[in-house]
Amino acid sequence: MELCGAHGLRLAAEVAGESDWPPVLLLHGGGQTRHAWARTARRLASAGYFAIALDARGHGDSPWAPDGDYSADALVADLAAVRASLRSPPALVGASLGGLTSLLAIGEGPPDFARALVLVDIATRLEADGIARVLDFMRAHTGGFASMDEAAAAVAAYNPHRQARGTTGLRKNLRQREDGRWYWHWDPRFLDHATRSSAGEALVDQERREQAARRVCVPTLLVRGESSDVVSPEGARELQRLIPHAELFDVQNAGHMVAGDRNDVFSNAVIEFLRSRLPDGTLCR
Predict the structure, then answer these.
(1) What's the pLDDT score for residue 171?
(2) Per UniProt, which keywords does this protein have (predicted)?
(3) What pLDDT was estimated at residue 108?
(4) What is the pLDDT of residue 162?
(5) Phi, psi at 95, each rounded to 5°
(6) Which of 58, 65, 63, 12 is nearest to 31 (CA)?
(7) CA 58 to chain centre
(8) 117: how many CB neighbours lie within 10 A of its CB?
(9) Quick check: 88 pLDDT over 80?
């Protein structure tokens, strides 16, 4: 299906569950697609939630931005447009880039924007080396791969926590072009908006992240990969300082790609959090 983003941009989406169930919006990380949430969406639906997994602009089957705008403001505007189409405020589950977008949308938006926030290995303090490794991986392969096996080998080298699963899942994230090579299914211009610095900035500068976090009043959960090089234990504690009611769940044997590394553990943690915290409503006064 398609949902309407900012200025009429059509965003590809996958849904699971019934539309009158409590909505949960799933936002993937940079360079990923909605398919990263396939198993989690099914689990959420089985638990009684209406799961909506979006392809961000320029990713997956969503169109590339005509003007090349992949700024944080553009992504938040897309999310706000999708939010306006829902019958009730959703819970937001955002991984990496999707988490930053969710954090800004809630922290800078109206009080009823969302009912809960789940940040997946993303926080206000980010480790510069980890961000650099992510961006280096994305930039290293903009020229595509000679084969699916070559792509699988590159992913395995980047993410040793992930069990080898062959090339079946990769086919949803790669497209073969006329030159015979396989390319990631996202707009390389996205990287023009991804910066790096000693503060681990990526798309959103640290001061803006912190200001948004201070205004988060909904139940919040940070799910962190125990072996993550993007969010450190100190980064998790810093988030809890800014969002005092935020809860922390560490996933063992998982890195930055938590939902893919240990999906059962991750999905269980999210569902348990939503079941126990959503009835509480707003936590700030």
Answers:
(1) 82
(2) Hydrolase
(3) 98
(4) 64
(5) -100, 130
(6) 58
(7) 14
(8) 26
(9) yes
Contact status, residue 259 vs residue 120, Cβ threshold 8 Å: yes
For strands 2-4 and 247-251, give the pairing. unpaired
Per domain, the residue ranges of the chain are 2-127+204-280, 131-190
Q: In the chain, where does DSSP find H-type helix?
A: 38-46, 72-84, 97-108, 128-140, 148-158, 206-214, 233-242, 258-261, 263-277
Neighbours of 8 (CB within 10 A): 7
Place domain 2-127+204-280 in its CATH homologous superfamily.
Answer: Alpha/Beta hydrolase fold, catalytic domain (3.40.50.1820)
User: Residue 12 in contact with residue 54, Cβ under 8 Å?
Assistant: yes
Q: What is the pLDDT of residue 11?
A: 98
- Contacts (Cβ under 8 Å, ≥6 apart) of 262: 251, 252, 253, 254
Dihedral sign of CA atoms 14, 20, 21, 27 in order: positive
Token couple for 269: 């943690």
pLDDT 10s digits, 223-270: 999 999 999 999 999 999 999 999 999 999 999 999 999 999 999 999
* pTM, two decimal places: 0.93
